[in-house]
Amino acid sequence: MSLPTPNASPAANSSLAVHVRGVSKTFGTGEAAVAALKGVDFDARQGELLMIVGPSGCGKTTLLSVIAGTLNFEGGELDVFGAKLHQMKPRAITEFRKRNVGFIFQAFNLIPTLSCIENVCVPLLINGVSRRVAERKAAALLEQVGLGTRGNERPLNLSGGQQQRVAIARALVHEPRLVICDEPTSALDKDTGGHIMDLLRDVARHPDRCVIVVTHDSRVFQYADRLTEMEDGRVQRVHDRSGHFDEEGGLK
Ligand SMILES: Nc1ncnc2c1ncn2[C@@H]1O[C@H](COP(=O)(O)OP(=O)(O)O)[C@@H](O)[C@H]1O
Ligand SMILES: [Mg+2]
Protein backbone atom coordinates (compact mmCIF):
# COMPACT_ATOMS: atom_id res chain seq x y z
CA MET A 1 0.00 0.00 0.00
CA SER A 2 1.37 3.41 -0.88
CA LEU A 3 0.85 6.34 1.40
CA PRO A 4 -0.41 9.58 -0.07
CA THR A 5 2.43 12.04 -0.57
CA PRO A 6 1.84 15.31 1.22
CA ASN A 7 1.55 18.15 -1.26
CA ALA A 8 2.08 15.77 -4.17
CA SER A 9 0.18 18.23 -6.27
CA PRO A 10 0.60 21.99 -6.09
CA ALA A 11 -3.17 22.24 -6.04
CA ALA A 12 -3.07 20.54 -2.66
CA ASN A 13 -1.86 23.91 -1.49
CA SER A 14 -5.25 25.53 -1.57
CA SER A 15 -3.88 29.06 -1.26
CA LEU A 16 -2.58 28.95 -4.84
CA ALA A 17 -4.88 30.12 -7.60
CA VAL A 18 -2.43 29.66 -10.45
CA HIS A 19 0.67 27.47 -10.47
CA VAL A 20 2.84 27.42 -13.59
CA ARG A 21 6.02 25.34 -13.80
CA GLY A 22 8.43 25.05 -16.70
CA VAL A 23 5.95 26.18 -19.36
CA SER A 24 7.32 27.01 -22.81
CA LYS A 25 5.68 28.47 -25.89
CA THR A 26 7.27 28.92 -29.30
CA PHE A 27 5.50 30.71 -32.17
CA GLY A 28 6.39 29.59 -35.70
CA THR A 29 8.98 27.05 -36.77
CA GLY A 30 12.51 26.87 -38.16
CA GLU A 31 14.31 30.17 -38.65
CA ALA A 32 11.13 32.14 -37.98
CA ALA A 33 10.57 30.50 -34.57
CA VAL A 34 10.11 32.91 -31.65
CA ALA A 35 10.43 31.51 -28.12
CA ALA A 36 7.88 33.65 -26.24
CA LEU A 37 7.97 31.63 -22.98
CA LYS A 38 11.14 29.81 -21.96
CA GLY A 39 10.24 27.47 -19.15
CA VAL A 40 8.41 30.04 -17.07
CA ASP A 41 7.63 29.46 -13.37
CA PHE A 42 4.83 31.62 -11.98
CA ASP A 43 2.43 31.60 -9.03
CA ALA A 44 -0.63 33.64 -8.11
CA ARG A 45 -2.39 33.23 -4.77
CA GLN A 46 -6.07 33.12 -4.00
CA GLY A 47 -7.36 36.42 -2.69
CA GLU A 48 -4.66 38.54 -4.29
CA LEU A 49 -4.29 41.11 -7.01
CA LEU A 50 -1.03 40.28 -8.75
CA MET A 51 0.55 42.57 -11.31
CA ILE A 52 2.92 41.53 -14.08
CA VAL A 53 5.33 44.07 -15.54
CA GLY A 54 8.10 43.77 -18.11
CA PRO A 55 9.35 45.18 -21.41
CA SER A 56 7.29 44.84 -24.57
CA GLY A 57 7.75 41.43 -26.16
CA CYS A 58 8.89 39.66 -22.96
CA GLY A 59 5.92 37.25 -23.06
CA LYS A 60 3.31 38.84 -20.77
CA THR A 61 0.34 38.46 -23.12
CA THR A 62 1.48 34.96 -24.06
CA LEU A 63 1.61 33.95 -20.39
CA LEU A 64 -1.88 35.39 -19.75
CA SER A 65 -3.28 33.51 -22.77
CA VAL A 66 -1.75 30.24 -21.57
CA ILE A 67 -3.15 30.72 -18.05
CA ALA A 68 -6.58 31.59 -19.49
CA GLY A 69 -6.55 28.33 -21.45
CA THR A 70 -6.79 30.10 -24.81
CA LEU A 71 -3.31 29.18 -26.08
CA ASN A 72 -1.69 25.75 -26.09
CA PHE A 73 1.87 25.39 -24.84
CA GLU A 74 4.80 22.97 -24.89
CA GLY A 75 5.78 21.08 -21.78
CA GLY A 76 5.48 22.07 -18.15
CA GLU A 77 2.56 22.18 -15.75
CA LEU A 78 -0.36 24.56 -15.46
CA ASP A 79 -2.65 24.31 -12.48
CA VAL A 80 -5.56 26.78 -12.17
CA PHE A 81 -7.68 26.50 -9.02
CA GLY A 82 -6.81 22.82 -8.84
CA ALA A 83 -7.58 22.04 -12.51
CA LYS A 84 -4.54 20.57 -14.24
CA LEU A 85 -4.87 22.21 -17.64
CA HIS A 86 -1.76 20.43 -19.00
CA GLN A 87 -3.60 17.12 -18.64
CA MET A 88 -7.03 18.24 -19.84
CA LYS A 89 -8.64 17.83 -23.26
CA PRO A 90 -9.50 20.99 -25.21
CA ARG A 91 -13.23 20.61 -24.61
CA ALA A 92 -12.74 20.30 -20.85
CA ILE A 93 -10.47 23.36 -20.88
CA THR A 94 -13.11 25.36 -22.75
CA GLU A 95 -15.74 24.31 -20.22
CA PHE A 96 -13.43 25.24 -17.33
CA ARG A 97 -12.63 28.63 -18.87
CA LYS A 98 -16.28 29.47 -19.51
CA ARG A 99 -17.13 29.15 -15.83
CA ASN A 100 -13.98 30.24 -14.08
CA VAL A 101 -12.08 32.79 -16.13
CA GLY A 102 -12.81 36.39 -17.08
CA PHE A 103 -10.37 37.84 -19.61
CA ILE A 104 -9.89 41.51 -20.46
CA PHE A 105 -7.94 41.59 -23.72
CA GLN A 106 -5.61 44.39 -24.79
CA ALA A 107 -7.73 44.85 -27.93
CA PHE A 108 -11.09 44.65 -26.04
CA ASN A 109 -12.46 42.00 -28.49
CA LEU A 110 -16.02 43.29 -28.19
CA ILE A 111 -18.52 41.98 -30.74
CA PRO A 112 -19.28 44.99 -32.97
CA THR A 113 -22.74 43.83 -34.10
CA LEU A 114 -24.02 43.52 -30.50
CA SER A 115 -24.98 46.36 -28.19
CA CYS A 116 -22.86 46.99 -25.11
CA ILE A 117 -25.37 45.26 -22.85
CA GLU A 118 -25.53 42.25 -25.20
CA ASN A 119 -21.73 42.05 -25.17
CA VAL A 120 -21.69 42.00 -21.37
CA CYS A 121 -24.40 39.30 -21.34
CA VAL A 122 -22.33 36.83 -23.39
CA PRO A 123 -20.46 35.08 -20.52
CA LEU A 124 -23.75 34.54 -18.69
CA LEU A 125 -25.67 33.27 -21.71
CA ILE A 126 -22.98 30.72 -22.59
CA ASN A 127 -23.22 29.47 -19.01
CA GLY A 128 -26.95 28.89 -19.39
CA VAL A 129 -28.25 31.93 -17.49
CA SER A 130 -31.62 33.19 -18.79
CA ARG A 131 -31.61 36.32 -20.93
CA ARG A 132 -33.71 38.23 -18.41
CA VAL A 133 -31.33 37.57 -15.51
CA ALA A 134 -28.31 38.11 -17.76
CA GLU A 135 -29.57 41.52 -18.87
CA ARG A 136 -30.25 42.57 -15.29
CA LYS A 137 -26.73 41.61 -14.18
CA ALA A 138 -25.15 43.15 -17.26
CA ALA A 139 -26.98 46.43 -16.66
CA ALA A 140 -25.74 46.50 -13.05
CA LEU A 141 -22.14 45.92 -14.16
CA LEU A 142 -22.35 48.63 -16.84
CA GLU A 143 -23.64 50.95 -14.13
CA GLN A 144 -20.64 50.07 -11.94
CA VAL A 145 -18.18 50.96 -14.69
CA GLY A 146 -19.98 54.27 -15.29
CA LEU A 147 -21.76 53.33 -18.53
CA GLY A 148 -25.28 52.81 -17.21
CA THR A 149 -26.81 54.97 -19.93
CA ARG A 150 -24.90 53.48 -22.88
CA GLY A 151 -26.11 49.88 -22.78
CA ASN A 152 -28.07 49.96 -26.01
CA GLU A 153 -25.30 51.47 -28.11
CA ARG A 154 -22.88 49.56 -30.29
CA PRO A 155 -19.30 49.48 -28.97
CA LEU A 156 -17.92 51.39 -31.98
CA ASN A 157 -19.99 54.45 -31.00
CA LEU A 158 -18.00 54.62 -27.75
CA SER A 159 -14.50 55.97 -27.10
CA GLY A 160 -11.57 53.58 -26.59
CA GLY A 161 -11.73 54.09 -22.83
CA GLN A 162 -15.46 53.39 -22.76
CA GLN A 163 -15.03 50.24 -24.85
CA GLN A 164 -12.38 49.11 -22.39
CA ARG A 165 -14.88 49.57 -19.57
CA VAL A 166 -17.47 47.46 -21.42
CA ALA A 167 -14.81 44.76 -21.79
CA ILE A 168 -14.13 44.97 -18.04
CA ALA A 169 -17.86 44.63 -17.25
CA ARG A 170 -18.00 41.57 -19.53
CA ALA A 171 -15.01 39.98 -17.78
CA LEU A 172 -16.58 40.37 -14.33
CA VAL A 173 -20.29 39.73 -14.95
CA HIS A 174 -20.23 35.93 -14.40
CA GLU A 175 -18.17 36.34 -11.20
CA PRO A 176 -15.24 34.20 -12.41
CA ARG A 177 -12.75 33.00 -9.83
CA LEU A 178 -9.85 34.11 -12.00
CA VAL A 179 -9.83 37.51 -13.68
CA ILE A 180 -7.04 38.14 -16.16
CA CYS A 181 -6.42 41.64 -17.51
CA ASP A 182 -4.03 42.75 -20.23
CA GLU A 183 -3.33 46.46 -19.67
CA PRO A 184 -6.83 47.31 -18.41
CA THR A 185 -6.10 50.97 -17.71
CA SER A 186 -3.95 51.83 -20.74
CA ALA A 187 -6.73 53.74 -22.54
CA LEU A 188 -8.22 55.31 -19.41
CA ASP A 189 -7.60 58.65 -17.72
CA LYS A 190 -6.30 58.64 -14.14
CA ASP A 191 -9.70 58.82 -12.39
CA THR A 192 -11.40 56.19 -14.54
CA GLY A 193 -8.34 53.94 -14.30
CA GLY A 194 -8.42 54.29 -10.51
CA HIS A 195 -12.12 53.43 -10.45
CA ILE A 196 -11.51 50.28 -12.54
CA MET A 197 -8.65 49.27 -10.25
CA ASP A 198 -10.96 49.74 -7.23
CA LEU A 199 -13.41 47.33 -8.88
CA LEU A 200 -10.65 44.78 -9.52
CA ARG A 201 -9.41 45.18 -5.95
CA ASP A 202 -12.89 44.39 -4.66
CA VAL A 203 -12.88 41.18 -6.71
CA ALA A 204 -9.49 40.20 -5.30
CA ARG A 205 -10.76 40.69 -1.74
CA HIS A 206 -12.73 37.46 -2.10
CA PRO A 207 -10.52 34.77 -0.57
CA ASP A 208 -11.30 32.26 -3.33
CA ARG A 209 -10.76 34.58 -6.26
CA CYS A 210 -7.68 36.02 -7.94
CA VAL A 211 -6.94 38.94 -10.26
CA ILE A 212 -3.87 39.05 -12.51
CA VAL A 213 -3.13 42.35 -14.24
CA VAL A 214 -0.46 43.05 -16.85
CA THR A 215 0.35 46.74 -16.82
CA HIS A 216 2.84 49.39 -17.90
CA ASP A 217 0.99 51.95 -15.83
CA SER A 218 3.04 52.79 -12.73
CA ARG A 219 0.09 54.84 -11.38
CA VAL A 220 -1.73 51.60 -10.58
CA PHE A 221 1.12 49.67 -8.87
CA GLN A 222 -0.30 50.81 -5.53
CA TYR A 223 -3.26 48.44 -6.04
CA ALA A 224 -1.06 45.32 -6.22
CA ASP A 225 -0.54 42.80 -3.43
CA ARG A 226 2.50 41.52 -5.31
CA LEU A 227 4.29 42.48 -8.47
CA THR A 228 5.99 40.01 -10.79
CA GLU A 229 8.70 41.19 -13.19
CA MET A 230 9.09 39.29 -16.45
CA GLU A 231 12.01 39.44 -18.83
CA ASP A 232 12.75 37.44 -21.96
CA GLY A 233 10.13 34.72 -21.50
CA ARG A 234 10.66 34.15 -17.77
CA VAL A 235 9.80 35.58 -14.36
CA GLN A 236 12.83 37.47 -13.05
CA ARG A 237 11.67 38.77 -9.69
CA VAL A 238 8.61 38.86 -7.44
CA HIS A 239 8.09 41.89 -5.19
CA ASP A 240 5.98 41.62 -2.05
CA ARG A 241 4.22 44.68 -0.72
CA SER A 242 6.41 44.65 2.34
CA GLY A 243 9.81 46.08 1.64
CA HIS A 244 9.76 46.52 -2.09
CA PHE A 245 7.16 49.19 -2.70
CA ASP A 246 7.85 52.80 -1.82
CA GLU A 247 5.34 54.96 0.04
CA GLU A 248 3.45 55.93 -3.12
CA GLY A 249 3.13 52.27 -4.04
CA GLY A 250 5.83 52.45 -6.73
CA LEU A 251 8.74 50.03 -6.92
CA LYS A 252 11.80 50.96 -4.84
N1 LIG B 1 0.74 34.97 -32.59
C1 LIG B 1 2.06 35.20 -32.61
N2 LIG B 1 2.81 34.79 -33.68
C2 LIG B 1 4.14 34.99 -33.69
N3 LIG B 1 4.84 35.57 -32.70
C3 LIG B 1 4.15 36.00 -31.64
C4 LIG B 1 2.73 35.84 -31.53
N4 LIG B 1 2.33 36.35 -30.33
C5 LIG B 1 3.44 36.82 -29.74
N5 LIG B 1 4.55 36.61 -30.51
C6 LIG B 1 5.93 36.96 -30.15
O1 LIG B 1 6.20 36.40 -28.87
C7 LIG B 1 6.95 37.32 -28.07
C8 LIG B 1 6.18 37.64 -26.80
O2 LIG B 1 5.01 38.37 -27.17
P1 LIG B 1 3.93 38.90 -26.12
O3 LIG B 1 3.57 37.78 -25.22
O4 LIG B 1 2.84 39.53 -26.90
O5 LIG B 1 4.78 39.99 -25.31
P2 LIG B 1 4.28 41.18 -24.36
O6 LIG B 1 2.83 40.99 -24.08
O7 LIG B 1 5.15 41.07 -23.15
O8 LIG B 1 4.57 42.45 -25.11
C9 LIG B 1 7.24 38.52 -28.96
O9 LIG B 1 8.50 38.35 -29.56
C10 LIG B 1 6.12 38.46 -29.99
O10 LIG B 1 6.55 39.05 -31.19
MG1 LIG C 1 1.20 42.29 -24.48
Please describe the topology of this protein.
Layout: E1 16-27, E2 34-45, E3 49-53, H1 60-67, E4 77-80, E5 83-84, H2 90-100, E6 101-104, H3 116-125, H4 131-144, H5 160-172, E7 178-182, H6 190-204, E8 210-214, E9 226-231, E10 234-240, H7 241-244
Parallel strand pairs: 3-8, 3-9, 6-7, 7-8
Antiparallel strand pairs: 1-2, 1-4, 4-5, 9-10
This protein binds adenosine-5'-diphosphate and magnesium ion (MG).
Magnesium ion binds at residues 60-61, 106, 182.
Which properties best describe this structure?
252 residues, alpha/beta, Rossmann fold, six-stranded mixed beta sheet, four-stranded antiparallel beta sheet, 7 helices, 25% strand, disordered N terminus, binds adenosine-5'-diphosphate, binds magnesium ion
